[in-house]
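Consider today's protein:

***
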Amino acid sequence: MTDAATAHRPLRAAIIGTGAIAHAHAQALADLAPRITLAAVVDVDADRAAAFAERFGAVAVYPDAAALLAAEPLDLVHICTPPQTHVPLAIAALRAGVPALIEKPTALSLAEMDELVAVSRETGVPALTVFQHRFGGAARRLQALAAEGALGRPLVATCETLWHRTPDYFDLPWRGRWQIEGGGPTMGHGIHQFDLLLAVLGPWARLTAFAARQSLPTDTEDVSMALVEFENGALATVVNSIVSPRETSRLRFDFEYATVEVEHLYGYTDADWTFTPAHGHEHLAERWTQDPAEPISSHTSQLAAIVDALEIGAAPGVDADDARRTLELAAATYASAFRGVPVRAGEIAGDDPFLRSMDGGAVPWAPIKPALETTR
Protein backbone atom coordinates (compact mmCIF):
# COMPACT_ATOMS: atom_id res chain seq x y z
CA MET A 1 0.00 0.00 0.00
CA THR A 2 1.16 3.57 -0.70
CA ASP A 3 2.93 5.45 2.10
CA ALA A 4 4.87 8.67 2.51
CA ALA A 5 7.93 7.11 0.91
CA THR A 6 6.23 7.23 -2.47
CA ALA A 7 6.68 11.02 -2.44
CA HIS A 8 10.23 10.33 -3.75
CA ARG A 9 9.04 8.59 -6.91
CA PRO A 10 6.08 8.89 -9.31
CA LEU A 11 3.02 6.99 -8.20
CA ARG A 12 2.00 4.12 -10.49
CA ALA A 13 -1.62 3.73 -11.57
CA ALA A 14 -3.57 1.29 -13.70
CA ILE A 15 -6.98 1.54 -15.35
CA ILE A 16 -9.34 -1.44 -15.52
CA GLY A 17 -11.84 -0.95 -18.33
CA THR A 18 -11.03 1.30 -21.29
CA GLY A 19 -14.50 2.48 -22.30
CA ALA A 20 -15.68 6.08 -22.53
CA ILE A 21 -15.26 7.16 -18.89
CA ALA A 22 -11.75 5.72 -18.76
CA HIS A 23 -10.60 8.52 -21.06
CA ALA A 24 -11.40 11.07 -18.33
CA HIS A 25 -9.32 9.05 -15.87
CA ALA A 26 -6.41 8.72 -18.30
CA GLN A 27 -6.50 12.44 -19.05
CA ALA A 28 -6.47 13.21 -15.32
CA LEU A 29 -3.39 11.02 -14.93
CA ALA A 30 -1.74 12.82 -17.84
CA ASP A 31 -2.61 16.20 -16.32
CA LEU A 32 -0.84 15.23 -13.10
CA ALA A 33 2.31 13.76 -14.66
CA PRO A 34 5.00 13.21 -13.59
CA ARG A 35 3.60 12.86 -10.06
CA ILE A 36 1.57 9.85 -11.18
CA THR A 37 1.86 7.73 -14.31
CA LEU A 38 -0.36 5.25 -16.16
CA ALA A 39 1.60 2.02 -15.91
CA ALA A 40 -0.93 -0.47 -17.28
CA VAL A 41 -4.46 -1.02 -18.56
CA VAL A 42 -6.89 -3.94 -18.51
CA ASP A 43 -9.75 -4.73 -20.87
CA VAL A 44 -11.47 -7.86 -22.16
CA ASP A 45 -11.24 -6.30 -25.64
CA ALA A 46 -7.54 -6.69 -26.45
CA ASP A 47 -7.59 -4.39 -29.48
CA ARG A 48 -9.35 -1.60 -27.59
CA ALA A 49 -6.96 -1.98 -24.67
CA ALA A 50 -3.92 -1.81 -26.95
CA ALA A 51 -5.20 1.31 -28.71
CA PHE A 52 -5.98 2.96 -25.37
CA ALA A 53 -2.56 2.10 -23.98
CA GLU A 54 -0.85 3.53 -27.04
CA ARG A 55 -2.86 6.74 -26.90
CA PHE A 56 -2.21 7.40 -23.20
CA GLY A 57 1.28 5.98 -22.89
CA ALA A 58 0.64 2.87 -20.79
CA VAL A 59 3.50 0.38 -21.01
CA ALA A 60 1.62 -2.84 -20.23
CA VAL A 61 -1.73 -4.35 -21.25
CA TYR A 62 -3.39 -7.19 -19.33
CA PRO A 63 -6.41 -9.36 -20.16
CA ASP A 64 -7.84 -9.32 -16.63
CA ALA A 65 -7.46 -7.76 -13.20
CA ALA A 66 -5.90 -10.85 -11.65
CA ALA A 67 -3.00 -10.78 -14.11
CA LEU A 68 -2.53 -7.05 -13.54
CA LEU A 69 -2.49 -7.28 -9.74
CA ALA A 70 -0.13 -10.24 -9.79
CA ALA A 71 2.41 -8.54 -12.03
CA GLU A 72 2.39 -4.81 -11.33
CA PRO A 73 3.46 -2.85 -8.22
CA LEU A 74 0.72 -0.22 -8.08
CA ASP A 75 -0.27 2.72 -5.91
CA LEU A 76 -3.77 3.16 -7.35
CA VAL A 77 -6.14 1.27 -9.62
CA HIS A 78 -8.97 3.04 -11.45
CA ILE A 79 -12.08 0.89 -11.93
CA CYS A 80 -13.95 2.06 -15.04
CA THR A 81 -15.97 -1.03 -15.88
CA PRO A 82 -19.79 -1.52 -15.95
CA PRO A 83 -21.35 -1.10 -12.48
CA GLN A 84 -22.00 -4.75 -11.63
CA THR A 85 -18.23 -5.43 -11.68
CA HIS A 86 -17.18 -2.51 -9.45
CA VAL A 87 -17.20 -4.18 -6.04
CA PRO A 88 -15.61 -7.52 -7.03
CA LEU A 89 -12.78 -5.71 -8.82
CA ALA A 90 -12.32 -3.23 -5.98
CA ILE A 91 -12.15 -6.03 -3.40
CA ALA A 92 -9.51 -7.83 -5.49
CA ALA A 93 -7.44 -4.64 -5.56
CA LEU A 94 -7.81 -4.03 -1.81
CA ARG A 95 -6.77 -7.57 -0.99
CA ALA A 96 -3.70 -7.03 -3.19
CA GLY A 97 -2.91 -3.93 -1.13
CA VAL A 98 -3.81 -1.42 -3.86
CA PRO A 99 -6.20 1.51 -3.23
CA ALA A 100 -9.12 1.49 -5.67
CA LEU A 101 -10.74 4.55 -7.26
CA ILE A 102 -14.19 3.42 -8.37
CA GLU A 103 -16.50 5.08 -10.85
CA LYS A 104 -20.03 5.70 -9.65
CA PRO A 105 -22.15 3.99 -8.62
CA THR A 106 -19.70 2.38 -6.21
CA ALA A 107 -21.98 -0.62 -5.68
CA LEU A 108 -25.36 -1.88 -6.88
CA SER A 109 -26.81 -2.24 -3.38
CA LEU A 110 -26.21 -1.26 0.22
CA ALA A 111 -25.39 -4.89 1.06
CA GLU A 112 -22.69 -4.93 -1.60
CA MET A 113 -21.44 -1.57 -0.35
CA ASP A 114 -21.25 -2.96 3.19
CA GLU A 115 -19.07 -5.79 1.91
CA LEU A 116 -16.69 -3.26 0.36
CA VAL A 117 -16.62 -1.17 3.55
CA ALA A 118 -15.79 -4.29 5.57
CA VAL A 119 -12.90 -5.30 3.29
CA SER A 120 -11.49 -1.78 3.29
CA ARG A 121 -11.53 -1.73 7.10
CA GLU A 122 -10.07 -5.25 7.30
CA THR A 123 -7.20 -4.55 4.90
CA GLY A 124 -6.65 -0.92 5.84
CA VAL A 125 -6.60 -0.07 2.12
CA PRO A 126 -8.80 2.80 0.85
CA ALA A 127 -11.76 2.17 -1.43
CA LEU A 128 -12.55 5.52 -3.05
CA THR A 129 -15.46 6.72 -5.18
CA VAL A 130 -15.35 9.25 -8.02
CA PHE A 131 -17.41 12.17 -6.71
CA GLN A 132 -15.47 14.94 -8.41
CA HIS A 133 -18.01 17.71 -7.75
CA ARG A 134 -16.75 17.87 -4.16
CA PHE A 135 -13.30 18.90 -5.37
CA GLY A 136 -13.83 22.06 -7.40
CA GLY A 137 -12.50 25.19 -5.78
CA ALA A 138 -15.91 26.77 -5.09
CA ALA A 139 -17.36 23.60 -3.57
CA ARG A 140 -14.41 23.19 -1.24
CA ARG A 141 -14.74 26.82 -0.20
CA LEU A 142 -18.46 26.37 0.44
CA GLN A 143 -17.87 23.23 2.50
CA ALA A 144 -15.32 25.07 4.62
CA LEU A 145 -17.56 28.09 5.21
CA ALA A 146 -20.55 25.88 6.05
CA ALA A 147 -18.51 23.73 8.46
CA GLU A 148 -17.15 26.85 10.14
CA GLY A 149 -20.68 28.22 10.62
CA ALA A 150 -19.82 31.47 8.86
CA LEU A 151 -23.00 31.31 6.76
CA GLY A 152 -25.31 30.59 9.67
CA ARG A 153 -27.69 27.65 9.83
CA PRO A 154 -28.57 25.89 6.56
CA LEU A 155 -32.29 26.32 5.95
CA VAL A 156 -33.36 25.31 2.44
CA ALA A 157 -31.68 23.64 -0.52
CA THR A 158 -32.57 22.50 -4.02
CA CYS A 159 -30.64 19.89 -6.00
CA GLU A 160 -31.60 19.30 -9.62
CA THR A 161 -30.06 17.07 -12.25
CA LEU A 162 -32.22 17.71 -15.31
CA TRP A 163 -30.65 15.87 -18.22
CA HIS A 164 -31.87 14.35 -21.47
CA ARG A 165 -31.29 10.92 -22.93
CA THR A 166 -32.80 9.48 -26.11
CA PRO A 167 -34.02 5.89 -26.49
CA ASP A 168 -30.84 4.79 -28.27
CA TYR A 169 -28.90 5.62 -25.09
CA PHE A 170 -30.22 2.29 -23.80
CA ASP A 171 -28.88 0.28 -26.73
CA LEU A 172 -25.92 -0.74 -24.58
CA PRO A 173 -27.04 -3.98 -22.91
CA TRP A 174 -26.05 -2.93 -19.38
CA ARG A 175 -27.90 0.38 -19.33
CA GLY A 176 -31.30 0.74 -17.74
CA ARG A 177 -31.27 -2.66 -16.03
CA TRP A 178 -31.63 -2.94 -12.27
CA GLN A 179 -29.34 -5.93 -11.84
CA ILE A 180 -26.52 -4.48 -13.96
CA GLU A 181 -26.67 -0.69 -13.59
CA GLY A 182 -28.44 -0.56 -10.24
CA GLY A 183 -30.98 2.08 -11.20
CA GLY A 184 -31.78 5.03 -13.44
CA PRO A 185 -30.85 8.70 -13.03
CA THR A 186 -30.98 8.42 -9.24
CA MET A 187 -28.01 6.06 -9.36
CA GLY A 188 -26.22 6.96 -12.56
CA HIS A 189 -26.74 10.67 -13.17
CA GLY A 190 -27.99 12.75 -10.23
CA ILE A 191 -25.81 11.00 -7.68
CA HIS A 192 -22.94 13.44 -8.29
CA GLN A 193 -25.17 16.40 -7.49
CA PHE A 194 -26.77 15.03 -4.35
CA ASP A 195 -23.39 13.76 -3.16
CA LEU A 196 -22.26 17.40 -3.11
CA LEU A 197 -25.51 18.32 -1.38
CA LEU A 198 -24.68 15.83 1.38
CA ALA A 199 -21.06 16.97 1.55
CA VAL A 200 -22.28 20.51 2.34
CA LEU A 201 -25.35 19.80 4.52
CA GLY A 202 -24.17 16.69 6.35
CA PRO A 203 -26.23 13.64 7.38
CA TRP A 204 -29.82 13.34 6.21
CA ALA A 205 -32.53 12.15 8.61
CA ARG A 206 -35.58 11.14 6.53
CA LEU A 207 -37.09 11.53 3.10
CA THR A 208 -40.23 11.06 1.06
CA ALA A 209 -39.87 10.29 -2.63
CA PHE A 210 -41.53 9.54 -5.95
CA ALA A 211 -40.15 7.78 -9.03
CA ALA A 212 -41.60 7.09 -12.46
CA ARG A 213 -40.82 5.72 -15.88
CA GLN A 214 -42.20 8.58 -17.94
CA SER A 215 -41.11 7.86 -21.51
CA LEU A 216 -37.85 5.97 -22.02
CA PRO A 217 -37.42 2.26 -22.89
CA THR A 218 -35.76 1.29 -19.63
CA ASP A 219 -36.49 -1.12 -16.79
CA THR A 220 -35.47 1.59 -14.31
CA GLU A 221 -36.97 4.98 -13.53
CA ASP A 222 -36.25 7.92 -15.81
CA VAL A 223 -37.17 10.50 -13.15
CA SER A 224 -37.23 10.64 -9.35
CA MET A 225 -37.98 13.35 -6.80
CA ALA A 226 -37.33 13.43 -3.06
CA LEU A 227 -38.03 15.80 -0.19
CA VAL A 228 -35.22 15.38 2.33
CA GLU A 229 -34.92 16.49 5.94
CA PHE A 230 -31.39 16.77 7.35
CA GLU A 231 -30.23 16.19 10.91
CA ASN A 232 -29.46 19.91 11.20
CA GLY A 233 -33.06 20.76 10.30
CA ALA A 234 -32.47 21.89 6.71
CA LEU A 235 -35.00 20.83 4.06
CA ALA A 236 -34.03 20.01 0.49
CA THR A 237 -35.62 18.88 -2.75
CA VAL A 238 -33.70 16.45 -4.96
CA VAL A 239 -34.77 15.93 -8.60
CA ASN A 240 -33.09 13.44 -10.94
CA SER A 241 -34.31 13.36 -14.55
CA ILE A 242 -33.17 12.16 -17.96
CA VAL A 243 -36.31 13.34 -19.78
CA SER A 244 -35.58 17.11 -19.65
CA PRO A 245 -34.75 18.64 -23.07
CA ARG A 246 -33.08 21.76 -21.65
CA GLU A 247 -30.30 20.14 -19.70
CA THR A 248 -28.92 21.68 -16.54
CA SER A 249 -27.45 20.78 -13.17
CA ARG A 250 -28.37 23.13 -10.34
CA LEU A 251 -27.69 23.40 -6.64
CA ARG A 252 -28.91 26.16 -4.36
CA PHE A 253 -28.18 26.50 -0.64
CA ASP A 254 -30.06 29.05 1.46
CA PHE A 255 -28.28 29.71 4.75
CA GLU A 256 -29.26 32.27 7.36
CA TYR A 257 -26.72 34.76 6.07
CA ALA A 258 -26.30 33.95 2.38
CA THR A 259 -27.57 32.07 -0.66
CA VAL A 260 -24.99 30.09 -2.62
CA GLU A 261 -25.89 28.72 -6.06
CA VAL A 262 -24.27 26.86 -8.94
CA GLU A 263 -25.66 26.03 -12.38
CA HIS A 264 -23.67 24.01 -14.88
CA LEU A 265 -24.07 20.80 -16.85
CA TYR A 266 -21.36 18.18 -16.43
CA GLY A 267 -18.77 20.20 -14.51
CA TYR A 268 -18.49 23.67 -13.03
CA THR A 269 -15.94 26.46 -12.84
CA ASP A 270 -15.87 29.22 -10.24
CA ALA A 271 -17.72 31.43 -12.74
CA ASP A 272 -20.76 29.13 -12.55
CA TRP A 273 -21.34 30.02 -8.88
CA THR A 274 -23.29 32.93 -7.42
CA PHE A 275 -22.98 34.21 -3.86
CA THR A 276 -25.71 36.47 -2.44
CA PRO A 277 -25.23 37.73 1.13
CA ALA A 278 -28.28 38.55 3.25
CA HIS A 279 -28.84 42.16 4.26
CA GLY A 280 -26.43 43.09 7.01
CA HIS A 281 -23.99 40.33 6.06
CA GLU A 282 -22.43 41.87 2.97
CA HIS A 283 -18.98 41.38 4.49
CA LEU A 284 -19.30 37.65 3.72
CA ALA A 285 -18.88 38.40 0.02
CA GLU A 286 -15.23 39.18 0.74
CA ARG A 287 -14.75 35.56 1.76
CA TRP A 288 -16.37 34.31 -1.42
CA THR A 289 -13.61 35.13 -3.85
CA GLN A 290 -13.62 33.88 -7.42
CA ASP A 291 -10.07 32.95 -8.31
CA PRO A 292 -9.51 31.85 -11.95
CA ALA A 293 -6.73 29.60 -10.66
CA GLU A 294 -9.16 27.59 -8.53
CA PRO A 295 -9.62 24.02 -9.82
CA ILE A 296 -12.77 23.13 -11.71
CA SER A 297 -14.85 20.11 -10.76
CA SER A 298 -13.23 17.28 -12.69
CA HIS A 299 -11.57 13.92 -12.42
CA THR A 300 -8.28 15.82 -12.36
CA SER A 301 -9.27 17.88 -9.31
CA GLN A 302 -10.27 14.80 -7.33
CA LEU A 303 -7.26 12.79 -8.46
CA ALA A 304 -4.98 15.69 -7.47
CA ALA A 305 -6.41 15.57 -3.95
CA ILE A 306 -5.92 11.79 -3.86
CA VAL A 307 -2.31 12.08 -5.01
CA ASP A 308 -1.67 14.77 -2.40
CA ALA A 309 -2.96 12.41 0.29
CA LEU A 310 -1.13 9.32 -0.95
CA GLU A 311 2.17 11.17 -1.16
CA ILE A 312 2.07 12.03 2.53
CA GLY A 313 0.39 8.84 3.74
CA ALA A 314 -2.90 10.58 4.59
CA ALA A 315 -6.40 9.22 4.03
CA PRO A 316 -7.76 10.31 0.63
CA GLY A 317 -11.43 11.01 -0.11
CA VAL A 318 -14.12 9.96 -0.86
CA ASP A 319 -13.77 6.75 1.19
CA ALA A 320 -16.19 3.82 1.32
CA ASP A 321 -17.92 4.91 4.52
CA ASP A 322 -18.59 8.35 3.08
CA ALA A 323 -19.77 6.97 -0.25
CA ARG A 324 -22.16 4.60 1.55
CA ARG A 325 -24.07 7.57 2.98
CA THR A 326 -24.64 8.87 -0.53
CA LEU A 327 -25.69 5.44 -1.80
CA GLU A 328 -28.10 5.12 1.13
CA LEU A 329 -29.91 8.26 -0.05
CA ALA A 330 -30.42 6.60 -3.43
CA ALA A 331 -31.70 3.39 -1.84
CA ALA A 332 -34.05 5.32 0.42
CA THR A 333 -35.38 7.27 -2.58
CA TYR A 334 -36.35 4.01 -4.27
CA ALA A 335 -37.72 2.46 -1.09
CA SER A 336 -39.90 5.48 -0.33
CA ALA A 337 -41.09 5.85 -3.91
CA PHE A 338 -42.01 2.20 -4.39
CA ARG A 339 -43.52 1.66 -0.94
CA GLY A 340 -45.25 5.03 -0.72
CA VAL A 341 -43.93 5.78 2.79
CA PRO A 342 -41.23 8.01 4.31
CA VAL A 343 -37.86 6.38 5.00
CA ARG A 344 -35.47 7.30 7.81
CA ALA A 345 -31.69 7.08 7.62
CA GLY A 346 -30.50 3.70 8.87
CA GLU A 347 -33.93 2.13 8.40
CA ILE A 348 -32.92 -0.04 5.42
CA ALA A 349 -31.28 -2.89 7.29
CA GLY A 350 -31.58 -6.55 8.25
CA ASP A 351 -33.74 -8.47 5.80
CA ASP A 352 -35.13 -5.39 4.04
CA PRO A 353 -35.20 -6.17 0.28
CA PHE A 354 -33.95 -2.66 -0.49
CA LEU A 355 -30.71 -3.53 1.31
CA ARG A 356 -29.96 -6.14 -1.34
CA SER A 357 -31.19 -4.38 -4.47
CA MET A 358 -32.21 -0.86 -5.36
CA ASP A 359 -35.52 -2.02 -6.83
CA GLY A 360 -36.40 -3.99 -3.68
CA GLY A 361 -38.55 -6.30 -5.80
CA ALA A 362 -41.23 -3.62 -5.70
CA VAL A 363 -41.02 -1.68 -8.99
CA PRO A 364 -44.64 -0.74 -9.78
CA TRP A 365 -44.19 -0.87 -13.56
CA ALA A 366 -42.35 -4.22 -13.57
CA PRO A 367 -43.92 -6.88 -15.79
CA ILE A 368 -46.36 -9.07 -13.91
CA LYS A 369 -45.24 -12.67 -13.90
CA PRO A 370 -47.97 -15.13 -14.89
CA ALA A 371 -49.36 -17.15 -12.02
CA LEU A 372 -48.19 -20.75 -11.87
CA GLU A 373 -50.81 -23.25 -12.92
CA THR A 374 -51.85 -25.71 -10.27
CA THR A 375 -52.92 -29.28 -10.78
CA ARG A 376 -55.39 -31.27 -8.80
